[in-house]
Amino acid sequence: MRLNNYLYSQLSLTFFPIFLGLFFITSVVFLVRIASLTSVITMNFFELFQLYSYTIPQIIFYTMPICFFISLAITLSKLSGEYELTVITSFGLNPIKILKIFLPITIIVSMILLIISIGLIPKTKYLTKQFMEVKKKEANFNIKESEFGQKFGEWLIYINSKVDKNYQSVKLFKTEKDQEHFIISKEAILDNEDGNLSFKLIDGKVFVIDEKEQEFNQVDYENMYINNAITGSSMENFTTSYDYWMQNFKLKKDTDDFIFFVLTSIFPLISLFLVITFGYFNPRYEKNRTVAYSVLTIVIYFILVKYIGDKFIHSTYLIPIFWILVSYFLYSKTIKKEY
Length: 339
Known about the structure:
The chain is α+β, with helices and mostly antiparallel strands. It has helices spanning about 1-35, 45-80, 85-90, 95-140, 240-250, 255-265, 265-270, 270-280, 290-305, 315-335, 335-339; strands spanning about 150, 155-165, 165-175, 180-195, 195-210, 215-225.
């Protein structure tokens, strides 16, 4: 148990600096992309943070597998360089037993990545698209104060003043067949309820002039909503991640994303033999090339996944089997012989 705790503490000392550094760099990249959207839509600080929060699952997903794999390899190489693995091995703990110590936490990491990638990322992407659609709709309501000739859907609109989404002294006019509709309101609010925009008019009057019937009608109201100026959303409703993927499989849509998510999530788990292969070395006779080998392995794996793996669904189990066999072959030809 003490050895387990010691190895986990050494892993944490390596993992968190690498992960937090890469997380920060990736966050900056995403924030720059989000900031570029302000040229199209208007966002306050809270909305900017809200949009960034939707990208956090993606940032974790893209950084954690790489960081965890490299951290495991560096941890073992650091112990090898300080002859600690030699001492541990002399007490009867061969590389396979060391691998078993790291196996539970590696399984947990892979499970977390699967939940994030398959469960959370589709939901956050949907929320991002919904957020962008709402903001684009709001941009269509960019009505200037004290200016004639502005349109709100089918309505001509005039306002005296506005503060953010609150409009003061609003007047709307519309002609429809033989009728003319005129609305006045002391105040109006652009309302966003569950992603649906509407124009809420407060304390006003509605005048309807029917030229054919020679009638003039007046209606006083406290609150009134106008929704016909809002175009319907072309987005499909998101229920659950399970329904999302089942629907995509039926339509044969975004299956490459599913394959990529699964294969990336299990990368640390199926690469444990490579961790041992790269981490074990004799500092007297060998140079420490752990980082170089680890980076090369990551590049090869993701090239394999990107250009071969996402072509057919069976690669979700064929590639892991192939990768484990190759990893074990390298381990048996190098480390297994010596330890």
